[in-house]
Amino acid sequence: MSNVPVAVVTGSNKGIGLAIVRALCKQFPGDVYLTSRDPDRGQAAVAQLQQEGLKPLFHQLDIDDPQSIRALRDFLKEKYGGLNVLVNNAGIAFKVNDTAPFAVQAEVTLKTNFFGTRNVCTELLPLIKPYGRVVNVSSMASNSALKGCSPELQQKFRSDTITEEELVQLMTKFVEDTKKNIHQKEGWPNTAYGVSKIGVTVLSRIQARLLNEQRKGDHILLNACCPGWVRTDMAGPKATKSPEEGAETPVYLALLPSSADAPHGQFVSDKTVRPW
Ligand SMILES: NC(=O)c1ccc[n+]([C@@H]2O[C@H](COP(=O)([O-])OP(=O)(O)OC[C@H]3O[C@@H](n4cnc5c(N)ncnc54)[C@H](OP(=O)(O)O)[C@@H]3O)[C@@H](O)[C@H]2O)c1
């Protein structure tokens, strides 16, 4: 088994994820895994970084596929006995002009951004080694979507005692409510992406709390963040930040020094803790 520290970035064949891998290859003292649901796209991205003189490693990972997640988990367990840094970056967003019915957009978006991310955490968080760092890439869209929720929903999402099961029930209810076209009556905002990222931010708060309760002595720091508005296939060419600039806050959180005890359980943008 290797004693080398290991970092994994989900959805890193392009965009912000690729920029995070590039930065980690330069700054993280260990093996850095570029992962992609499509091995060809992943290997092409690895080749691109190799041309820049960097040495990322590759593993397939489709966060929608529980078997793919378990294969990565088993690989990390066997080769490294765990994991030091996990960046949950993979995500999707329908384009504004997409004509798919809202209920379909809700189901598909929540499936990857919330349920897929949660499934990765369920399998990989138990592998995180002492002083490990976990970064869940959420979005400022989660904050604006929260403000668009009914006061009752806002209270639940801001609660310091909400459980993961309760969060899963709420995310499931959102998808069901969109199918019945009652989501707005039920207090939800009209944004599937925003609600999926509420899920990611609240999940991060819950996971940080559980780490405090169950693994306090392990000094693991887990946060949600927004990369900013970044020029990628998702956000388009008019966005204000380059992918490298978008990677700065996730990389800062992934490389928090072992002496740090904060931030933890926070929502961070531009390296600054934001109110939730
Ligand atoms: N760009 C922004 O302005 C912005 C702002 C706030 C937050 N974010 C968040 O930042 C993250 C990265 O976004 P981006 O702008 O870099 O988007 P992007 O260029 O569209 O890249 C998204 C990445 O996620 C991967 N992915 C999607 N579904 C996946 C799945 N089921 N399993 C594994 N990988 C999957 C994609 O793989 P494929 O190539 O196979 O599709 C791609 O590598 C997302 O979580 C996004 O919500 C972005």
Automatic annotation (TrEMBL):
- Output the CDD domains linked to this UniProt entry: carb_red_PTCR-like_SDR_c (cd05324)
Q: Which keywords does this Swiss-Prot/TrEMBL entry list?
A: Cytoplasm, NADP, Oxidoreductase, Phosphoprotein
**The EC number(s) this enzyme carries:** 1.1.1.184
GO molecular function terms attached to this record: carbonyl reductase (NADPH) activity
> Which top EC class applies here?
oxidoreductase
Q: In which compartments does the protein localize?
A: Cytoplasm
A GO cellular component annotation here is:
cytoplasm
- Whether NADP counts among this entry's keywords is yes
One Pfam annotation reads adh_short
Does the record carry Aminoacyl-tRNA synthetase as a key word? no
Task: Return the similarity comment.
Answer: Belongs to the short-chain dehydrogenases/reductases (SDR) family.
Name of the protein in question: carbonyl reductase (NADPH)
